[in-house]
Every structure is written in C-alpha cells, then in structure tokens.
Write a structure and sequence with these properties.
globular; Neuraminidase; 43% strand; 4% helix; single chain; 392 residues; mainly beta
Length: 392
C-alpha cells in the first residue's frame, strides 16, 4: 500500500502522467491530402476518419434532434471566415458522414455552439469573439430561419499574437437554465483593465442578469458540467520555463478566484508570481485552491468530456481530455487524448499525433472530445480539420 501511494504521488508530482499504460494497438490513418500515419489507441477499439473539412475544426455539439454540429474557425488568425457545420447521414459501414452541411458562414472565430430549449422553442447559441448570438432552431433545419439575436458583447481587440494579445475564442455551456461563457485574458500575464477578461460569466438564456461566476482563469477553453459542478481546463501562463506553471483541470464554485495572474500551480503547490508582488500589496486576494488535476506545462488542455453509461468500464465515469499541444513542437507536450484517472494522474488514450520534433511530424492537434453513445466518441483535430470516430 505504501509503495502504491508513493508511485501515484510521484506520477502526479511529475506532471500527472501515469506510467502503467493499458494494452494498445496502432491503426493506420489516411487523409484525403495523402497524409499517412498511425495512431495508437486502446486494444479492442477502432478509429476512423468520420469527416474532413480541411480547416480548423474545433468544438462539437449534439442538436435536440440528434445531429452533430461543429465549429470551423478556418485558421489561427483573426478572421471572418468561420463556419458552423452539420455532419449528417452517418454511414455505419464506412464510419463516415456522407454529408457535410454549411449551417452558418462568414463568422468571426466561432469557437463553440450550444443548444438550449425553453418556452416551446429550441435555440442555437454561437460564440464568436465579440458576441454571443442565438438563433431559433427547428429540428431538421439546414440553415437558420432568422437573422439571429445578439445577447452579449465581449472585448474583441488586442488579438494580434505579435503584440502579446490573444485568446480570441469564447466558450459556452448551459446548466440549470443558465448560460456560462468563458472569456480568456488579453495577454500572457498582466493586470487586466476590463472585468470581463479571464473570467467565466453567468447569465440568463436571453443574456440578462450577467454576473461573474469565476475569475482568475487565464484561458478556460473547455467547460463541462458534471452533477452540478462546473469543471474546466485552464492553461497556465508562458515564459516561466519548460515545466511551470502546469496546465490545470479543476471544478469551480460560484464566486471563486483561481489565481491568474497573481498565483500559479506547480507540483501540487500554489506559488505567488513574483512579477505581481507589488500589485498584490494593494489587493486583498485569497490564495486559490490546488487543482486536483495538473497536466505538464504547455500541454494546452482544451475540450473535456465525462463519459456516462459508457460500455467500457475502464473509461466509464471518467474524464477524457484533448491535449492540444504546445505551439513549440520541440517541447513534446500534449498532442494526445488522455483519460483522467481517479488518483489525479492521467493516461494517454489516443496518441501518435506527434511523432517528432518538427511541425511536419505533427499529424494533428486534438481539440474536443464528445461522447456520442454508449460505445463511441468523437475527437476533433484543428490542425488538419479532421473529425475522428472512435468505437469499441
């Protein structure tokens, strides 16, 4: 028992990666571009390319009538070429969608969509950089029947990577008739002048009664409610070295403060960021809690999914997380889909997206994970615009 505890502690302290991997197999992937490579997946599983859109495929959502919607941000730049797509007519023989429908076009960096039903109506919510807009949705729609209603505005400037401003994505989700929107920081590490940065905002479905639900979150791209607890992934600041601060996954509470830019986490401890020592003298801040899940620095955790009633007892009742990977490929961080274990460690479930130290040897960057039914799930890759279908 002592040895087992020591082993788990060392795994967590070293970045959370578990060393005991389940049996795996390698499966060949061939894309329309001619790119060929192999992905490593759990034994007894299969993986297939369900769709390709060539651009920056991001997050997934299931509509009230059971169709698969997705966002396409086009590229990493600030543009108005984004789309909302519907993947339709899934072929159970080829494990591909026969049809891809453009539901909305000419959008500014659409990162995520969500559905909400109320007042005998269904709505599709679209998160662009500067706005949250909702459209009336009717089952079977292949395009909106209205022009949409803007229900919220958010900062949309300072987005040029060259000048240190980024986080142009907005994420959203619903719980108990409330809409939650995540807005990242305008910088790597700074004192924000706007209260709607580095926060998650709670509001009514019509955009009214907006309030800050949680703050101090540099960039919480992934959000997922489990048993009325909001879990998020959150990326730590850059320029502190190769190993710290760690990227995190943690549950939030209403009114909670989670550290950025004044604190960061490393090896299960909270440290003060010395760059903001002077500023902290005039601000009374409560030290943030230690996040239960820590990923290696620069892993860039994005989408997360809690597997419910899944046929595989190993994956059931656990989180799967997409590790997008560092923009600096040589760091060899992320670029995999991982399972979060009950002891706080994590194990690779799908790997092989990165097979070297150059961008040419990176064959994908996982962005989102979504359970589809009791025996399958989807994974998006926003490098090559690929939708993967994984089943047992």
């Amino acid at each position: 028992m002592i040895l087992r505890f020591l082993f788990c502690f060392l795994c967590f302290a070293s970045g959370g990666m578990a060393q005991n991997k389940p049996a795996t197999i390698k499966q060949s992937i061939v894309l329309k571009s001619g790119l060929q490579f192999k992905l490593t997946i759990p034994a007894k599983y299969s993986i297939a390319v369900a769709a390709e859109v060539k651009h920056r495929l991001r997050f997934l959502a299931k509509s009230p009538d059971g169709r698969l919607f997705a966002t396409d941000m086009f590229n990493r730049g600030d543009n108005k070429l984004g789309r909302i797509l519907i993947f339709d007519r899934f072929n159970t023989t080829t494990h591909r969608f026969d049809t891809t429908i453009e539901y909305l076009t000419k959008l500014r960096n659409p990162n995520q969509v969500a559905f909400y039903s109320g007042g005998n109506k269904h709505y599709l919510y679209v998160a662009e950089t500067g706005t949250i807009k909702r459209f009336v949705y009717q089952p079977g729609d292949n395009a909106p029947k209205d022009t949409g209603q803007v229900i919220a505005h958010y900062p949309d400037y300072g987005l040029n990577y060259k000048y240190g401003g980024w986080h142009l994505t907005r994420s959203l989700c619903f719980n108990n008739n409330k809409l939650y929107v995540s807005i990242g920081s305008s910088c790597n590490a700074c004192l924000e002048t706007e209260t709607s940065r580095a926060v998650i905002i709670e509001m009514n479905p019509d955009g009214s009664a907006q309030t800050i639900y949680a703050s101090g979150l540099r960039n919480a791209v992934g959000m997922h409610w489990v048993s009325n607890r909001l879990w998020v992934t959150n990326m730590g600041r850059d320029l502190m070295g190769p190993d710290k601060p760690e990227d995190l996954m943690l549950p939030l509470t209403s009114g909670g403060f989670y550290g950025w830019p004044f604190y960061y986490q490393y090896k299960s401890k909270i440290f003060a960021d010395t760059a903001f020592t002077a500023a902290m003298k005039n601000i009374h801040l409560k030290m943030p809690p230690v996040a239960p899940i820590a990923f290696k620095a620069h892993s860039a955790p994005l989408g997360l999914c809690y597997m419910i009633n899944f046929a595989d007892s190993v994956l059931n009742n656990s989180f799967l997380v997409a590790l997008h990977g560092s923009t600096s490929v040589w760091r060899q961080r992320g670029n995999a889909v991982v399972q979060v274990n009950k002891n706080g460690t994590y194990s690779e479930i799908i790997s092989g997206f990165l097979q070297g130290k150059t961008e040419k040897e990176r064959y994908g960057r996982p962005c989102d994970v979504m359970q589809w039914n009791t025996h399958s799930f989807f994974v998006t890759d926003d490098k090559n615009g690929v939708l993967y279908y994984v089943w047992k």
